[in-house]
Amino acid sequence: MNIALDMMGGDFAPLEAVKGLQLYLSADSGAATIFCIGNETQLQQLLQEHNIANDYIKVIHAPEVIGYHESPTKALKEKPNSSISIGFHLLASGKVDAFISAGNTGAMLVGTMYTIKAIEGVLRPTISTVVPQLSGKTGLLLDVGMNLDCKPEQLNQFAILGSLYSQHVLNVENPRVGLLNVGEEEGKGNALLQSTYPLLKENSKINFIGNVEGRDIFNDKVDVTVCDGYTGNVILKLAETVYDIAVHRNVGNDEYFHRFHYENYGGTPVLGVAKPVIIGHGISNDKAFMNMIVTATKMIESDLCNKIKESFTA
Amino acid sequence: MNIALDMMGGDFAPLEAVKGLQLYLSADSGAATIFCIGNETQLQQLLQEHNIANDYIKVIHAPEVIGYHESPTKALKEKPNSSISIGFHLLASGKVDAFISAGNTGAMLVGTMYTIKAIEGVLRPTISTVVPQLSGKTGLLLDVGMNLDCKPEQLNQFAILGSLYSQHVLNVENPRVGLLNVGEEEGKGNALLQSTYPLLKENSKINFIGNVEGRDIFNDKVDVTVCDGYTGNVILKLAETVYDIAVHRNVGNDEYFHRFHYENYGGTPVLGVAKPVIIGHGISNDKAFMNMIVTATKMIESDLCNKIKESFTA
């Protein structure tokens, strides 16, 4: 399999991307060929310095970079030779099977929607985050910011997308889906939640267990938690601080608290689009880059996007 | 000052209420007279057993109790001699200055709205939770579940109510108000957040610092965080599990993590109504009851409700 990696995205690029690549190769060399997109001169030198120039690495020159504060649509149009534009071109044309970038999030989302496109039947693609659970298992929360306002039918689709990701990428068997609400009883919540509940209940493609509450997210009660992107984004960022708090209280090495460190999941896949796209954190370090590559390989190996297509065709 | 305490509310009532009273009296005897509402025979015996029958305790007999699963409106109508009904009667008639109960939350909310009523000009009263901050300070988050869907003008009022509570009860000088959003920049968020931002910006009664994110809630960046009641409720319950997680990871005694234990704040005041009402957690223990009494005394001493009235008249 072939994976395109934007070497110029992220606050510490390209160095951390190179170091991440090195980590990945030392653990899993040969599983994937990595197309490294970025400034060729700069990259060749760094790859050489890190002794990772080999057959599994292809450097693709990108003379331009889309900055963090550029307008996504404008930048994608005006910089066809940016690392992000080239990455989408490689993915859309089938030269690679997945594209990863920790660059401008807006440009990644716009590029995904316009170049890779939503799978037929998917109303709105979504982004998710994995959730460390006390039991050791890994939950999934979605949407975490791509769709701030949601309609019931969208939340119902997020449940399907999240279930398939949980099952095929996180290896959770028959994942339990919960609707994030203010109480457990059916009928709780506002109009959106009350209208979403029966859709989830009648959805034969998921294993709906009912409403769940804020306290259930980190417990082993639910595998896939569905909510609107505003609430999900707030939780995502709040969860990220759990690790910071643990460090502040001198328990940053605790096995559980450490799982809240963003580097351990690295990035968020866009779900519901035709091919695997993974968007990284701006502060991505080497481990984050490595884990994004690992996630990409799992998405490719599990053939997730086709499983989603099948589910939405059936 | 006089405070009415529903001794029959909460999973471990009346024993924990009595023990909480004992804790309060041993620390702050004489500051307030507590009207203990409940089964007189049962209460007299427990008070005697705990040696807390004194001049600062008045037992008010309530032959009925509103159960957890009773319909609030129906129960309030059919049980005028329940501890909750009597509490509201004492508060409305001016015999006491505050009312505390850990009983049926719905009955407490309905009773508050119909008996104590919203302050003129307040569109929707709100409930809040205190937030332990890493700096040692105490933040405030609202709404946490009373208003699941909100309009911009309501969020704008929550900002005023929260500021006054933060200033007068939590003793935060010139509290910084933040709007919980998915990014810091003005213009971020959905239609609700985009419409709320200018109202907060132009509101001369508050010290608005702009949008804040999930990561800022536990940091010393904002004192009063405003959001809709759905998102706030999810965060409230999620924050409560931080203590459980800490216990699970053997750091429950950590000074900071321990502040997430619900018993340390005990209950949530209803803000924007004419008199102090505090609603407790169903699982309230002795410390929770003690802290609810302490919060009630602070609300009375600071004359918070009149300060809110003045602010909404001005």
Helix-residue proportion of chain A: 40-55%
* CATH T-level topology of the largest domain in chain A: Isopropylmalate Dehydrogenase
**Main sheet specs of chain A:** 11 strands, mixed
Give the overall average pLDDT of chain A: 95
Distance between the termini of chain A: 28 Å
- CATH architecture classification name of the largest domain in chain A: 3-Layer(aba) Sandwich
Overall SS class of chain A: alpha/beta
Which chain pair has the greatest contact?
A: A-B, 38 and 38 residues
CATH hierarchy, class of the largest domain in chain A: Alpha Beta
**C-alpha geometry of chain A:** globular
CATH superfamily of the largest domain in chain A: Isopropylmalate Dehydrogenase
Radius of gyration of chain A over alpha carbons?
19 Å
The parts of chain A where pLDDT drops under 50 for at least 5 residues are none
Say what oligomer this is.
Answer: homodimer
Count of extended strands of chain A = 11
Strand order of the largest sheet of chain A: 3-2-1-4-11-10-5-6-9-7-8
Binned strand content of chain A: 15-25%
How are helices and strands ordered from N to C of chain A?
A: EHEHEHHEHEEHEHEEHHEEHH
Number of helices of chain A: 11
Tally of individual domains of chain A: 2
